[in-house]
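Z., the sequence and structure:
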Amino acid sequence: FIDTNTPRPFVEDFSIYGNDAGVNETAAIEDHIYLDAIGLGIGCCCLQVTFQAQSIDEAQFLYDQLTPMTPIMLALSASSPIWRGYLAEIDCRWNVLCAMCDDRTAEEQGFQPLKNERFRISKSRYSSVDCYISPDSAVYNDIDVVQDKDIFHKLIENGIDHLLAQHLAHLFIRDPLILYEEMLHIDDTKDTDHFENINSTNWQSMRFKLPPANSDIGWRVEFRPTELQMTDFENAALVTFIALLTRAILTYNV
């Protein structure tokens, strides 16, 4: 954030961290705050709330109805104006997170022709929702959704509806980020860890959560954008508001 006391141009001084083979001398960019690790983004606190639905249809409906509220709640709860001790001209964590978690290659970003990659992807894997998944909202899907066609057709052949198949096939355009040796070889007919590996590293503003294997937990939706507040009271107020909002949506079918 630039005011009358901000040096012009503002350039960070990294000399206190040592020379680092000369890297520190070239790393600073004018009027930028240097954030050099994913932990500075993904480590931000936030207030994510998961709601269990009565059925898959209700979960899809609730997912779609809450989606327009995600940017509103992000703005209302904005509480991230300071980064590495500097006051920034942003007040939310979202764009920082999107940049920090953007693992797209130059080909996937469209800077180079597709040669080694399969898809051109318009956004970071940490981003807003890309499509609605309930039949009631299908008319609002007015942008092309990049998806793994093989996954899509396999889901359709096995009875998954078009909109949900599109959503799931879109998740699989990303590579897995985290793999544990003991989880490499598991029975996918009995365990959903391989799917959760993909689903849980597509960090969108809403998340559609499938029932875990061998569990009585049902279909769920996760509301993800809200920022953490300074007090328990404020956090409880935001959670309560979102919970009441879900009750109103389902009660009045709006």
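The CA atoms of residues 228 and 234 lie 9 Å apart. The beta strands are 49-52, 82-83, 86-87, 126-127, 203-204, 206-209, 220-223.

Let me know what you think.
H.
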